[in-house]
Design a protein that fits this description.
elongated, 5-stranded antiparallel β-sheet, about 240 residues, 12 strands, alpha+beta
């Protein structure tokens, strides 16, 4: 009876471990069985003892990855302890799970930079945006709740909305870059639809993507609408 109970418990541990995503399932299983008391492993450094089996080396690497994830999580919690958008920073094996609330589109750009998220690595769901990135070499899965609603609200407020890297830009108003320069949209776009903007009085045009990359982030100029404000063009683009 004791053997049957132990086998059943070990099977449950393996199933629960396989349900978690991991870059190395075999090492995760060994680590879980060892933690549950079904295996008695002596963790040694592979570099110091070449007699370790491949499975023991994988278990050792898994332990070190999990410890690294715990260290990075502790650093994030310390840095963002009082940030109103951060609801949870959780360790899940060798990766982190982060939950954010009430994130605006411009704030999402900053979070993507913080967590090393590329704009093509996000998935927009009805009430949240999910994305994967890396922080200090540790994989981070981020869920930003309410962000799709915030984006839709921004689109509704914009007279001429354009989405780029998760931010909704209103091309009907000037955009100020981080250096204080003000860019205007004159109704021209590249062949692939990217808006072209120019500084007031200059004929040179630059794509919105390059402006964001070189001197972003951009903020809309809504306090003062000068006579040079963005005109509504009729021949440069389709509505």
């Amino acid at each position: 009876m004791k053997t049957i109970v132990a086998f059943t418990d070990a099977t449950r541990v393996v199933r629960e471990t396989l349900a978690l995503s991991s870059v190395d399932p075999s090492a995760a299983i060994v680590h879980a069985l060892s933690s549950a008391g079904f295996l008695d492993l002596e963790h040694r450094s592979p570099a110091a003892d070449t007699s370790l089996t491949e499975l023991e080396q994988q278990a050792d690497a898994w332990d070190r990855s999990c410890e690294r994830a715990r260290q990075v999580a502790a650093g994030i919690r310390e840095q963002l302890a009082h940030h109103p958008s951060v609801q949870r920073v959780q360790v899940d094996g060798d990766r982190l799970l982060v939950a954010l609330y009430n994130v605006t589109p411009p704030q999402w750009t900053e979070w993507c930079a913080y967590f090393g998220i590329r704009d093509d690595r996000e998935t927009e769901l009805p009430y949240a945006v999910a994305a994967d990135g890396y922080r200090d070499g540790v994989r981070v899965s981020v869920v930003a709740y309410d962000l799709p609603v915030a984006r839709e609200h921004a689109r509704g407020l914009a007279a001429r909305a354009y989405d780029f890297q998760g931010v909704v830009y209103d091309l009907a108003v000037p955009q100020r870059d981080c250096e204080g320069q003000v860019w205007f949209y004159r109704g021209m776009r590249t062949a692939d639809g990217m808006p072209l903007l120019s500084l007031d009085g200059r004929p040179e045009r630059c794509t919105l993507a390059n402006i964001v990359r070189m001197t972003g982030p951009l903020t809309p100029v809504t306090d003062t609408m000068s006579s040079q404000a963005t005109p509504v063009m009729t021949g440069g683009e389709s509505a």
